[in-house]
Every structure is written in structure tokens, then in C-alpha cells.
Design brief:
Layout: H1 7-21, E1 40-44, E2 47-51, E3 61-64, E4 67-70, H2 94-103, H3 128-137
Antiparallel strand pairs: 1-2, 3-4
């Protein structure tokens, strides 16, 4: 008598046997809420936890074994764009000045190629008004 081997059933059998051989720790989650989320990492022993779409209630510290988790809210400070930082390196330095010099065509002369970033006052040209703001933002290279 020939037997047909059903690979799906065999894979399920192996998975069930493997699951029965592993030892697992008991975890308990007696209560939970879904609140606004941020991104936070916490570690304990070999475990890491990051919350992004939900977090424990603000100010509540949960403990259990070697683990501790405190909920809260993240304050984010977003720096406004630095006028004249057209190369994206977070400072206004000589590299930006070299690019500005090729764009400084004066009032009512339009914008040269790749000069829109230096039109700081958004009036359609790069002039002394834009240069004055650029000059106040000039930091040189940051460490």
C-alpha cells in the first residue's frame, strides 16, 4: 500500500511538535489601554520593547520581574529651517556663500538655475534683501 505525503500536514505536525518542546515564560497582561504613541526603546535582559502606535498611560510605571515600563509623552522640538542653508548641511557657511554668489543677480532679474533656495523673501529674485538675511544666518562650519 502506498501512502501519499501531504507536505502541509507534515509541516504543521513538525511545528506543533517543536512548539511543545520549547519552554516559555509566563507573561501576564492584566489590563491595557491604547493611547497616543511615540517611539521609545526599553530593554531588560534579552528583551527590547518599542512602542509606536500605543503606549501605557502617562506617568504610570509598570514593573514585573526584571522589567519596568513607564508611559509618557514625547516633546519634539523641530528647528525652523535655517535661511541660506541651501546645501542641507545644517549650517550657513562658505559652501552656501559660493552658491549664493552665482545667484545674486539683483532685484527684478529673476532666478537663476538652482537659486530658489536663496530667494529668502520669496519675491522672485535673489537681491541684497536676501543677502542681508543670509548674512545674519551665516554661521561658518559647525563642529
Amino acid at each position: 500500500m502506498r501512502y501519499r505525503l501531504n507536505t502541509g500536514a507534515l509541516a504543521l505536525l513538525i511545528l506543533l511538535l517543536a512548539a511543545g518542546l520549547t519552554s516559555a515564560q509566563d507573561y501576564d497582561l492584566d489590563w491595557w489601554t491604547v493611547d497616543g504613541g511615540g517611539d521609545m526603546w526599553t530593554t531588560g535582559d534579552d528583551y527590547e520593547l518599542s512602542g509606536t502606535i500605543g503606549q501605557p498611560d502617562a506617568g504610570v510605571t509598570m514593573t514585573g520581574g526584571d522589567f519596568e515600563l513607564t508611559g509618557g509623552f514625547w516633546a519634539v522640538t523641530i528647528a525652523p529651517p535655517l535661511p541660506g542653508n541651501c546645501d542641507g548641511d545644517n549650517d550657513v557657511d562658505m559652501a552656501d556663500f559660493e552658491d549664493l554668489a552665482t545667484c545674486l543677480l539683483g532685484p527684478d532679474n529673476g532666478l537663476g538655475p538652482n537659486c530658489g533656495c536663496f530667494d529668502i523673501d520669496q519675491d522672485g529674485d535673489v537681491s541684497s534683501t536676501d543677502f542681508a538675511v543670509f548674512q545674519r544666518s551665516f554661521t561658518g562650519a559647525l563642529p
